[in-house]
Please model this.
Amino acid sequence: MLIAALRRVLLSVITLVMLAVFIFIATEIMPGDALDVSLSADEIAMIPPERLAKMKQDLGLDRPAHERLLAFLNGAITLDFGKTLISKTPVSAIIGYPLRNSLILAGAVLLIAIPLALAIGIAAAFWKGRAVDHLVSTGSIIGYSIPEFVIGTILVMLFAVAWPIFPATITASTRDPALTLLASSPLAVATVLIGSIAYLARLLRTGMVDALASDFVERLRLTGIPEWRIVFLHALPAAVVPSLTALALYAASLVSGIVVVELVFAYPGLGQELVRGVTRREVHVVQAIALCSAAVVVALNLLADLAILMLDPRTRRA
Model:
């Protein structure tokens, strides 16, 4: 088991390095640079070419690509992503609180979604083919198919315009405490929660249906074990183990993929900083946010693999 765990850790490190190189290449092909965005076309036309070249040299925009790549990888290892090109603000100071806020939003959604999805998925699988199962299946397809910006817009129209119960946008600032931030963003949480419950409930229902129809469950029923013990103590662990990787990837996608929700509700997370970085061509900010999101995905996928190694003897033997 130790060798398998070390192999997965090594594979995760290699994957993260490859992702860092890909992120660097993707940001390098962005049109223009920070100097082009900060100056208007008239200002650039008025500046002599030699002075413009000197300005780009001072900002480090004339350095060869391989030097910038090595500097980026070295900064990623030491968690020092440098400073912004124009304002010279440390990148870590820019993305620190937004990263925390995105993690808070994703964590709050998962803490609510996982127990509800477990209950809904178990109920749908236990009463397979009945009204509960049909209701859950239909609701999960609808909830997961509707884009989040549509769900967010509907919630704003209902609970911020028609019935002004909640604020339409986030009223908390970036550095507010976690509870203050969550208290001011119920519609943002609800928007992500609807799609999350729909996806996870459908995923867990499929696993529970397969587990309840397995041979070992039939043998347990023949021994006279109560049905609730079979469902919760035997079938549920067997259904959850195959879903751990998908669950980990979905949890990671909440951190890196809720940009639309953050923009709809003006939530002070990574989404807004990413849009600002792309608009201003602040390459270091974009690279740092993309790499942090990739690191979350790789880390959660690694945790899921290690959990499967611990819980599933067949994986350890393989």
Remarks:
- The chain has 17 helices and no strands.
